[in-house]
Amino acid sequence: MDRRTLLALGAFGAGTLLTSRAQGAVKLFASQALPAGRLARPLIVLQLSGGNDGLSTVVPYAEDAYHRARPSIAHTKDKLLVLDEYRGLHPELKRLRAAFDKGQLAIVEGVGYPKPNRSHFESYDIWHAADPRGRALGQGWIGRACEKACEGDTNPNLVVHVGANVPYALHSTKHPAATFVNPAAYRWAGGEHETDAYAKASGAMDDGAAAEKPVRREGESSVEFLRRVMNDGHSSSLAVRRAAARYQTPIEYPRNDALATSLRDVAALVNSDIGSRVLSLELGGFDTHTDQRNRHDNLMRQLDGALGAFLADLGRSERGQAAIVLVFSEFGRRVAENGSRGTDHGVAAPLFVLGQRIKGGLHGKHPSFDKLDAGDLAHTTDFRSVYATLIERCFGIKHEDVLGAKFALAPLA
Amino acid sequence: MSNPSAIAFLLALAAAPLCAQAPLVGQATDVAPAAPGWNAQRAEHLLNRASFGARPAEIDFAVRTGQREFVRLLLQGFVEPAEPFFLDPPVRPDRRELAAMDEKQRRDALERFRRDEREMLFAYSGWWIEQMVEAEHPLREKLVLFWHGYFTSSMRDVKNAEAMIRQNELFRRHALGNFGELLRAVLRDPAMLEYLDNNQNRKDKPNENLARELMELFTLGVGNYSEQDIKEAARALTGWRTQGGNEALYAARQHDNGKKTILGRTGRFDADDLVDILLEQPACPRWVAGRLLEHFEGRKPSEERLTEYATLLKNSKYELAPFFEKLLLDERFYAPELVGERIAGPVEYMVGSVRRLGVAVPPSLLWLAAGQLGQRLFDPPNVKGWEGGEAWITTSTLLARGNMAGMLLGVVRLEDVLKDDAFDAGDEPGMMGGEMAGAPMDGAMGGDSMSSGEMSGAPKTPRKPEKKVDLGPELTAMKRLLGTVYYPRINLTARLSRTGRSTDGEIIDFLADELLPIALTDESRSALVEFLASERRALDCDDGRLLGAGVKAEGVLRRLAHLILSMPEAQVS
């Protein structure tokens, strides 16, 4: 880490003072002090839900077996954004191709895990918990990393999910995610006096001290849980609305696109620093059992436009430049197409890591078409190797403390 | 006591918004003495879970009827079901008609058809919500909602309003019937066949989607079958497909009649054989019982109870009524550690709030509001339906629940919720404003007088020109309903005056008792007391005199009710 970055961190990592007349309370959120050698790199996680077809994302066009298995949905070399003599990016991924050329996109090939599970929900759980047993540990991998790295941080915006359903990866007993879809509507709309009473009932203190975020106890009642969320929501909504309403950027995001709009909000939070260290989003629609070409092409276009703009926007602040973006899906899809010009659930697939300061290029090894596992590509890189790197770089802690075992660090950042 | 007309009368009384406090008619006295321990608190718990929240008169009735008899009534319904929805589905312009049109006419015709479809489903959704609010057969409606999340299908994928409505009617028909029959019907249900791609599941070209979810989500749960079982089961399901989007048919030529080996049995199985095989699996009654218990109790059952209820289900050949009769009479269902611990889903929260408030609300408005809170009927997030429980609650949905309650009370407008100029972009330079001091909440929010259900006051400082926000179809529809159809016909002042409650403490306790499914906690109560006292003093009233302050008192009471419905205690069931 260079000196410039440290100085910048000093500026952005300083405590943020929030006041609200309506709340009648002042809250001070101390961001984690960062010892030398630890760079708080914001982590942005984008989940492509439904099982993104890896073979249509990074296409092994030179592989005969690929074309044989997919007579009606294969991509041909002439349309692809060729990366080398074996593989090419989906034709719609033009901006990501440019990022790749600038070293801002890392493609990790053949990512998966042993004993693959082809159920959406089971496989989500395994990815989210980073545990082959699924939800056995009671917290997601990000929740556990925050618990280790962010002890005592009471900022409710430490972990943010932009979207309706919070993924299990963020599940945490100590740092539950703040959630919103539209920042403007992220509020309790009562009059000033009611809002005071609302804050008081939520347990917010009037004396200027931040309420101690209660630890989720074994046996905590539902009402206690609800009151804690109420308290978090009340203070989180102030900070998020403020950051989003004030955000100005020259970057043009695609219009009328929910993913692009949400990524713009994420950029607002990262660039204006309200203490968020993890920001999560989801893009659905990847479960392409039928008519895959059309649907997948549209999804790739949407992904490319939104991510391209977002990456450029991140370049405008030190924190944004330090950020690491993970794009993953719960599994890839079967090599052979099915009877409905679609594909069924599969196993290994490439994932993307993006950022201004990552080690771009191709990582890992493309799975072999000669050794299919029940018709699926077998994984060559364990997803926890990718997580291991993200845990060390973004949280500054040992990955085995979160993952429970040592994994080879994928050299991504 | 089993006089349906008396009950109908009672419920009708309770349903009238301004009569929520009407004294009970005396028909309910000729009943068996209450079982020991059967009291108002338990009755309310039962009605929270087996109905959509309780009105005071209903609790009273349940107590006087006795637990056993009241559970019997819950299983059979209080009154004859309302008239079924009259389904008059829009007709898709046929190929020949379309062929005769030019490009623009064709586009318009199809657009008109799609709009008619949406409106049909919207109308039906309102009808469905009305069944919940009226609660003539509340347990049945509770189960229709449950099955909608269990055997879920989505309009987004099915794209056929009639099929979605027929599926809902199927759930209602079988809601408290036999699970095996329900399952069989679901595998012939056009919406399900479309949703899980069975139209594409053909002999020699199997599509596994339906087979996988059938085992994983409908009958067995993960770990009780193999990938090979799914492949073979998919073959058994070949041949069932839809025609015209809303009719199911069996195409024998597309059925794979070969031998299959499923869960250890081999034969030329078809869909019905597959159901038989699944129902015989020991995992099946455990799966179904576990899902039902978790839904109705708000937590996973102990191993012992799961076994007990799975055995009952198996022995009764999957009949659901005995299951619920046992559950609702089970002492453990009323254990203190279960009461008030189940998080209400958005539909339950909205319908429950309306019932407890005793306010008449256009049902479509409730459907839209529940959608804003994360549960849009006919549009579940994925094939697993809604996750439920704590997953309903995020910082965002919890704030929004309060906002939706505020709309019912007429103290929150859509514009208030969506106001994004609370923080002026222009008041500080740059995107990273350094220390962000000040930035008060919008001053217009603090109005203290109220008439015709609106907050008073205009922005005090000139603001940047109002940004034209595209609300999207749902919020636009909501705004239209709120602006044109909806007027909150409640009169809390009159309600309180009639009961003789007048001091701050009495007012709060009365409203909390009416509006909350469980008792108010001290933390919430002290915030409410402080609020009410300060609002009362602002009107120059002594304690006990607030109700004399006319329209201003009503404003205070409605804002108090808004706060009460925003409390943690209002979010459970």
Output the helix-strand order of chain A.
HEEEEHEEHEHHEEHHHEHHEEEEHH
Low-confidence stretches of chain A: 1-38, 206-216
Q: Based on DSSP secondary structure assignment, what is the total number of beta strands of chain B?
A: 6
Structural class of chain A: alpha/beta
Shape of chain B: globular
| Physical arrangement of strands within the biggest beta sheet of chain B | 1-2
Taking all Cα atoms into account, the compactness measure Rg of chain A is 22 Å
Q: Mean pLDDT of chain A, nearest integer?
A: 87
Uncertain stretches of chain B: 1-6, 12-34, 424-467
Which fold name is given in CATH as the topology of chain A? Alkaline Phosphatase, subunit A
**Number of DSSP E strands of chain A:** 14
Query: In what range is the share of β-strand residues of chain B?
Result: under 5%
Give a quick set of tags describing it:
heterodimer, A: 413 residues, alpha/beta, nine-stranded mixed β-sheet, 12 helices, disordered N terminus, B: 573 residues, mainly alpha, two-stranded antiparallel sheet, two-stranded antiparallel ribbon, 6 strands, 53% helix, 3% strand, globular
What this model shows, in words?
- Chain A is α/β, with parallel strands linked by helices and 413 residues long.
- Among the domains of chain B are: 73 residues, no CATH class; 189 residues, no CATH class; 51 residues, no CATH class; 80 residues, no CATH class.
- In chain B, a hairpin with a 2-residue loop joins β3 and β4.
- The N terminus of chain B is likely disordered.
- Chain B is globular.
- At the A-B interface, β1, α4, β9, α6 and α7 of A face α12, α20, α21, α25 and α26 of B.
